[in-house]
Amino acid sequence: MASYMDTINRVLGGDFADATREERAEAVSNITQVCSVASGAVTIQPIPLLDVALVTPIQISMVQAIARIHGYSLDRKSILEILSTFGASIVAQNVVMAAAKMIPFLGWLIAPSMAYALTWAVGEVSDYYFANGRGVSQQDLREMFQRIYKAKHAEKKAEHKDNTTLKRKLEQLKEAYASGLLTEEEFARKKEEVLKDF
């Protein structure tokens, strides 16, 4: 989680006024990647509805950082308004993600890829929105969000389909945490390490 916060703080503290298009694109790419991984990592916890509370601040920080890269300084309220333009899509995906957690262990495999894809889509759509001077219709944003989310989620599901190693590692981590062999901090750090490559 430290790398996520370091990246966010670096962007929020940086000056992109004279940045080239390539430098901005690289910064957005870094933020989107780091935040997507962080979102996937925080879903590896046993409480279903907690995912929304953990993923949403990551997405808000990411959108705020992407806005900053494009020269906009927005508060959290403005960011929430922008996120609401994606409509029920984000809410629906979060509900599905929480429901998946009700299925023993399967939810542990589904939730990270959903959170990753959801955050990735929010990042890409936000980049498009700010790069185009915030002059994009809600309909276009929603359609773009759905298209990117579906593609990224399918990509992540395909990666996980053959990834029995990930399943085994997550199972071992969960067992170690449940039996008291890992502290909550160690468990969080190790799950982030496991998910870095997912």
Account of the 3D structure:
- The structure is a single chain.
- With 198 residues, this protein is mainly alpha-helical.
- It is built from nine helices and no strands.
- α1 packs antiparallel against α2, α2 crosses α9 and α8 (164-178) runs antiparallel to α9 (184-195).
- It is globular, with a radius of gyration of 17 Å.
- 36% of the residues are buried.
Given as residue ranges, the uncertain stretches (5+ residues, pLDDT < 50) are none
Largest sheet: none
Q: Helix and strand string, N-terminal first? A: HHHHHHHHH
Total DSSP E strands: 0
Level of helix content? over 70%
Structural class by helix and strand composition: mainly alpha
Number of structural domains: 1
Radius of gyration: 17 Å
Beta content comes to under 5%
Q: How large is the count of helical segments? A: 9
- In terms of quaternary structure, the protein is single chain
Choose one word for the global shape.
globular
What is the mean predicted local confidence, pLDDT?
79
Query: What is the end-to-end distance?
Result: 15 Å
Question: What descriptive keywords fit this protein?
Answer:
single chain; mainly alpha; 9 helices
List the helices and strands and how they pair.
Layout: H1 2-13, H2 21-42, H3 50-69, H4 76-84, H5 88-100, H6 106-131, H7 138-161, H8 164-178, H9 184-195
Helix pairs in contact: 1-2, 1-3, 2-3, 2-6, 2-9, 3-4, 3-6, 5-6, 6-7, 8-9
Brief characterization of the structure:
Helices cover 77% and strands 0% of the residues.
